Amino acid sequence: MDVYQQLDTQVATKNLGTEWLSSGAYYRLATSTYGNVVFGNPQVQTIRSYGQRTPHALIATPQQNPNVWIVGWEDQNAGGNRTFNDSVILIKKVPPSP
Predict the structure, then answer these.
(1) What does pTM read for this prediction?
(2) How far apart are CA 97 and CA 10, in angstroms?
(3) Residue 54: inside a domain
(4) Which of 11, 13, 20, 63 is deepest in the core (most CB within 10 A)?
(5) Which residues pair with 58 in a beta bridge?
(6) 81 in a domain, yes or no?
(7) Phi, psi angles (nearest 5°) of residue 29
(8) Closest of 97, 50, 55, 45 to residue 79, by C-alpha
(9) Is residue 57 part of a domain?
(10) Residue 34 DSSP one-character state
């Protein structure tokens, strides 16, 4: 079962600019190839369970760039190691073409 069985709904808290992704991922995101994506420090996000369901994704938007979403997944049952960085996808909103 993938149930979060704690009384407190707070599963994890991540400082998105320093302790969520690997140093290599932060480096790549900050390059022009990936859109110069940088999270503010501290930019903190709390991941919570709802209805005792274990969350498996963290969706974050850099404060300075609301057109970018970074989605990170936790790959293990029952919250696993709660890194939420086992698979990470960059989504960038682009304006419609004229």
Answers:
(1) 0.84
(2) 41
(3) yes
(4) 20
(5) 72
(6) yes
(7) -60, -35
(8) 55
(9) yes
(10) G
Q: Is 94 helix (H, G, I), strand (E, B) or coil?
A: coil
User: How many independent structural domains does the chain possess?
Assistant: 1
> In this structure, are residues 9 and 50 in contact, taking their beta carbons and an 8 Å threshold?
yes
What 85-92 contacts at long range (C-beta under 8 Å, 24+ apart), as own/partner pairs, is: 85/20, 85/21, 85/22, 85/25, 88/21, 88/25, 90/29, 90/34, 90/35, 90/37, 92/35, 92/67, 92/68
Q: Which of 91, 28, 40 is nearest to 64 (CA)?
A: 40
Please indicate, yes or no, if residue 3 is contained in any of the structural domains: no
Question: Sign of the C-alpha dihedral, residues 25, 28, 33, 34?
Answer: positive
pLDDT per residue rounded down to tens, the chain (98 residues): 566 677 788 888 999 999 999 999 999 999 999 999 999 888 999 998 888 788 889 999 999 899 999 999 988 776 678 899 999 999 999 888 88
CA–CA distance, 74 with 68 (Å, rounded to integer):
20
